[in-house]
């Protein structure tokens, strides 16, 4: 069994076609076919069912391919470790950012990344928390900027800053003269949530001391994924929103944004990597760049209460339901 053979079966699993897999591996089709046959004979197991179109792995083949991916990931981590030991700040980094943070942090961050890490090529992907965790565990991205803790034993978390939540309200929610936001029992059901953003929603429900059952009393449901849309729904007097502070830094001064009383609810924003990630020098440099680009207000020490999401009953139930539907 060779590493090259493992690469071939991974390519076949991805392409489900001998010719395309051979092309992706820069090898002839007969050569790839011969290597697959040799591997199957060596281990005594058929990895692919050739009678189906498109090609698909056998039941045991699925497990073998999964293990092959882990082996190659470990090989890559050894290569990354060598690079890290030499303190070379170069190469390609695939960086994921949660969608409730990306539109507001990346414009602040990207210029400094280019200036301070000129030899690093960044590919930035915006996704939900669940999507980024899966990408990290599979190795399709190298690191992610996201809310933590994740609760995953296969991920390493490096906190960068704490982002306060603020309330965005309309005329139905108290006097404009009020400095702090006060939540009443009568308006709890009007809290606007984002579709499929289970991590973010779990934090909001925690802040408001709500359960998902309380939200079932709503008369309208909005299948939306954008904080900017939430703002417009509030402006249309259709409810209120709780927003992360970075999402309002470019808004016009507006007395409808209200802070919470101390201890203010915050979310912990961290750089998250898999437990095989080895570019520690680069990781620390990116962490430093993120901190430096933040507005000064977010760097100030305050009386905060960190809001978690991974242990929320809502989060666990929502994720279980989404997996069941797939």
Automatic annotation (TrEMBL):
SUPFAM superfamilies (alphabetical): Periplasmic binding protein-like II, Winged helix' DNA-binding domain
PROSITE patterns: HTH_LYSR
InterPro entries found in the cross-reference section: LysR_HTH_N, LysR_subst-bd, WH-like_DNA-bd_sf, WH_DNA-bd_sf
Keyword terms: Activator, DNA-binding, Transcription, Transcription regulation
Superkingdom, natural source: Bacteria
One Pfam family here: HTH_1
Domain HTH lysR-type: 1-58
Segments crossing the lipid bilayer: none
Family: Belongs to the LysR transcriptional regulatory family.
Protein name per its UniProtKB record: LysR substrate-binding domain-containing protein
